[in-house]
Amino acid sequence: MSPAAPAVVSVSLDRGHHFSKPTAAEIVLLEGLGVEGDAHAGTTVQHRSRKRWHKDEPNLRQVHLIHSELFAELFDEGFSVAPGQLGENVTTTGVELLDLPRGTVLHLGDEASVEITGLRNPCVQIDRFQDGLMKACIRVDDGGAVERRTGVMAVVRSGGTIRPGDGITVVLPPEPHEPLSTV
Question: Which GO terms describe its molecular function (predicted)?
Fold first, then answer.
């Protein structure tokens, strides 16, 4: 079976600070801000867990992207997760998000683009959603290396409307590539 062409599977937003985000027919990305109407849009930190101590820092978590392939892996491990349920704004297919270097630009559809800033670090809310899901989403190998599987965070470089089915073009930054770390 050949890999899927890089594409947007689903889009989601939530005006409130909730763990899951309802899916939508489309979302609008606003340059330098995030998803129009989403609680996490803004130029400075918007996540409640960080805003208290880092309110004046730049918002490097404007858009959350997860690869849909994770949902199939989690299903095989006994979990049921659908687009938007882990709080992502954009669910993708055909892009190895976790393997991309920091600074990678993803062109989403015809207009919008985001720059990957780092890995999403899952919080305890993930276990409140489904017991044991946090352990399934964070793996530690025998050498102690931690693998976070809950997607990447990005900032909006160019605004535009994105919809399920839109293509994704990946543009790597100049070398040397910097691996992703949590933001």
Answer: catalytic activity; molybdenum ion binding; pyridoxal phosphate binding
Tell me the domain boundaries of the chain: 7-11+22-164
Judging by DSSP bridges, how do beta strands 168-171 and 34-35 pair with one another?
Answer: unpaired
- Residue in 22, 38, 180 with CA at minimum distance from that of residue 115: 180
In the block, residue with structure tokens 């400075």:
44
The CA–CA distances, whole Å, from 109 to 62, 64, 163 equal 18, 16, 8
Which tokens hold the place of 79?
């979990």
7-11+22-164 belongs to CATH 1.20.140.10: no
Strand partners, 91: 10, 66
Instruction: Please write the tens of the pLDDT for every residue from 98-123.
Output: 999 999 999 999 999 999 999 998 87
Task: For the chain, give the number of residues.
Answer: 183
Does residue 157 sit in helix, strand or coil?
strand
140-173 pLDDT tens trace:
888 888 889 999 999 999 999 999 999 999 999 9
